[in-house]
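Need a sequence for this fold. Nothing fancy.
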């Protein structure tokens, strides 16, 4: 077998990062981690580094004590992503902070296995153009997009009629609106089917995550918004559907484990033998059910899709306002219902800002965060 392919793992200590390391460990004949980063958890990163021995290690939080050989500060993400030994970059950072590293890796023609969906929401046109111009591959890790990629294998764009993304519906799928508005942090962090980082878990409870994913799908697959739909599927077994022009529908399914789409993003378009999940047992599933989204109770989905359709700075504003509102909710400074209210206000005031360059998009991102912060400060 040829020597293993070098992988840079950004966000190694997170939920996706840890799942990625399990995959890399099982597939060590094929892949080897050559660069790893974390935000602030130096102790957890040090443990992973001791196990995997990457050539480059980076810690984003400059104030945290760390071994002298490590890269420091936000630049370490780009240093890891452009490490000469890395052919694949797994971007498992949370939030718009992952954007510069994605762009840097694509500019060097590397494959980016992208979990960091915010990258595509903030600057989807720029990111996909950069990938095209440099012959780089942008391969989704997000389970819905991995499902679509798998369903699209060998097909042409004109054969595709619709993408249908599935959503678990989150912990408040059946709750009345008044109860959702007052949901606590603990309520919102109880995801029914997936174990994930706290930010995406809150996004799954508001359905903002599904809005981010519709925008992500639009950019990854070049499908217009009016041909992307969302259906609630509480069991999270079918990860998405593609409907073709002849009326046939393909779905991709599997137990809800991110190790499957992580591995596929590394080996795509091939599949390799792996032992990450138990053998599929259709009878044990019981049943698969589907429901319409309750848009009235979950306004974040519609807000995000409208921002995607509007384009320009609107998706960046939606994403940044959401990131700030979720952080404030997790810190106890904002109610659950307040997340959608603050994001709607930010969109109303800022969505029309210019968004034709990286600079203007980052300015819109910063303005949206300030907007949410100042509204919350006014109310306190
Ligand atoms: P997490 O919070 O568990 O981990 C985030 C990782 O990024 C950590 O290693 C952390 O140290 C690092 N990080 C956080 N803030 C950072 C910053 N400002 N700069 C640099 N690094 C930073 O999150 P997660 O659940 O692993 O999610 C990571 C990304 O993957 C998100 O974009 C999320 O939407 C996406 N995603 C996650 C899942 C999942 O199952 N967890 C599924 C699909 C997509
Ligand atoms: Mg997803």
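Here you go.
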């Amino acid at each position: 077998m040829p020597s293993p392919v070098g992988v840079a793992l950004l966000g190694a200590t997170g939920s996706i990062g840890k799942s990625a390391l399990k995959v890399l460990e099982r597939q060590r004949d094929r892949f080897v981690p050559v660069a790893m980063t974390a935000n602030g958890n130096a102790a957890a990163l040090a443990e992973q580094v001791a196990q995997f021995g990457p050539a480059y290690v980076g810690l984003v939080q400059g104030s945290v004590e760390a071994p002298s050989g490590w890269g420091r500060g936000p630049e370490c993400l780009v240093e890891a992503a452009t490490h000469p030994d890395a052919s694949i970059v797994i971007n498992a950072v949370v939030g718009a902070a992952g954007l510069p590293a994605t762009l840097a890796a694509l500019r060097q023609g590397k494959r980016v296995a992208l979990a960091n969906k915010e990258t595509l929401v903030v600057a989807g046109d720029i990111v996909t153009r950069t990938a095209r111009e440099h012959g780089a591959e942008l391969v989704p890790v997000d389970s819905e997009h991995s499902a679509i990629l798998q369903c699209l294998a060998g097909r042409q764009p004109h054969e595709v009629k619709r993408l249908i993304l599935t959503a678990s519906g989150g912990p408040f799928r059946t709750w009345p609106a008044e109860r959702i508005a007052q949901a606590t942090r603990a309520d919102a962090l109880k995801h029914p089917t997936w174990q994930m980082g706290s930010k995406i878990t809150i996004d799954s409870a508001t359905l903002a995550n599904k809005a981010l994913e519709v925008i992500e799908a639009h950019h990854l697959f070049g499908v217009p918004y009016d041909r992307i739909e969302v259906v609630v599927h509480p069991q999270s077994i079918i990860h998405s559907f593609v409907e073709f022009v002849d009326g046939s529908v393909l779905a991709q399914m599997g137990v809800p484990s991110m190790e499957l789409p992580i591995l596929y993003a590394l080996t795509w378009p091939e599949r390799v033998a792996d032992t990450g999940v138990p053998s599929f047992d259709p009878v044990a599933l019981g049943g698969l059910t589907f429901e319409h989204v309750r848009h009235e109770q979950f306004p974040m989905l519609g807000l995000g899709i409208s921002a995607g359709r509007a384009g320009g700075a609107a998706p960046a504003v939606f994403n940044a306002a959401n990131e700030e509102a979720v952080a404030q909710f997790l810190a106890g400074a904002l109610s659950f219902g307040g997340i959608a209210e603050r994001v709607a206000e930010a969109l109303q005031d800022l969505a029309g800002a210019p968004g034709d360059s990286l600079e203007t998009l980052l300015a819109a991102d910063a303005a949206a965060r300030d907007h949410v912060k100042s509204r919350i400060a006014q109310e306190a």
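For context: The CA atoms of residues 124 and 340 lie 23 Å apart.
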